[in-house]
Records
---
Amino acid sequence: MTVIVGVLALVVLLWLLNSFVRSDPHKVAAVVKIAGGTLSLAGAAFLGARGQLGLAVPLGAVGLGLLGWLPWPAGLGARTRKSRGQVSRVRTASIEMELEHDTGAMHGRVLVGRYEGVSLDALGVATLAGLAGEIDEESRALLATYLDRRNPAWREYAQDDAATGLSGTPRGPMTQQEAYQILGLEPGASAEEIGRAHLSLMKKVHPDHGGSTYLAARINEAKDTLLRRHR
């Protein structure tokens, strides 16, 4: 009987946590944690009174962690808060790009000119290499990031010296809205969420890992912009 009660308590707790993760209800997060922590402590007390310490101790630790009376394991917290399908967006005067966090895949579209509104995936490498010579420096840097992922040999198609001069520098001070889009976060994200998104993205786009100097600079700037409000 005592084992069944302990198992039921764990099942209810996991159900509550799973529901929270899928729906991401910010306003009820505190209520869910308190309810889960209270239920866990009640189950632990019941099991402890019956001498089932093997179940009571870990269940009590979970309850104390949910109520904030014990440190919550950082690794578990990161897993439960991870959102699937997260996307970063970077926009320049001529190009808009999306980076899927889960896969690292890049997709984009042209914003101006003869190919306005056309997906980059729908244009040939030679066409995009030619486009690089027609757009502004920052847009060339972003386009080069995409082309390096799609076809590392794309520069062979370049017809303009400008298409190979792609160091690029970010334009002006970054807004908070733009920073949230780049890191793929919702407004009001915590410093921990900002740091975690930054680290995850840098693993995918850092130049040391075959990524882009331009994108790495934008991601760093986005992190710094958002962290200023936490200081």
---
Amino acid sequence: MLSIVIPTLNEENYLPFLLKSLREQKFHGDYELIVSDAGSEDGTVKIAESFGVKIAKGGFPGRGKNEGAKLAIGDLILFVDADVILPEDFLEKNLKEFQSRKLGVASFYLQSKNKIHNFLFHILFNFPSRITEKILPQAMNVILIKKDIHQRIGGFNEEIKLGEELDYIRRGKFFGNFGVLKSVKVFASARRYQQDGWFKTWSKYFLCQIYMFFWGPVKSDIFKYKFNHYKRKT
């Protein structure tokens, strides 16, 4: 069984589209939906309840994912950010690839219906992810992992301020093969890059990678990362 964990905070403009895309999946397996909410003040929780999903009390990204995972009953966990949309064949094809490649943890390529954003996702994330797949795994909006590996590594490090996904998969790969699933890409929102600027945002993540390489996980607020500060839907 697959458990899908969605951390949220004031995501009423995005969550319905993700949940609708999950409801429309051409998937023959069993799955459950868990929304881990960090105290939304809008209609996020009501929307989640209207879709009949489990609700967990979340927090800053790492904690939200961990709290959601505590309710998971599946042997696989898919962590999904609320501002993505999954194509209707996403689960079916990617899970088959995950199993056929005998992976323990995986990330995904990103795409956008906007041609410019799609090009930038390819250059700034997809291409680097492909060339560093075997030596320095990359991950962003969506991660698939075996539940036993999640438990063995103690979940996400909740002290990390930026790059908790990178730390998570890089610890996970020591207990199961890592791979980037290529079957179906994720439709990702460009809201952070549009609001904060593409160059500024990717420079911050690039510097985060350098910091992690030399000094380990980013547990200080050196990069001044803001969680859920978006002003408009893009």
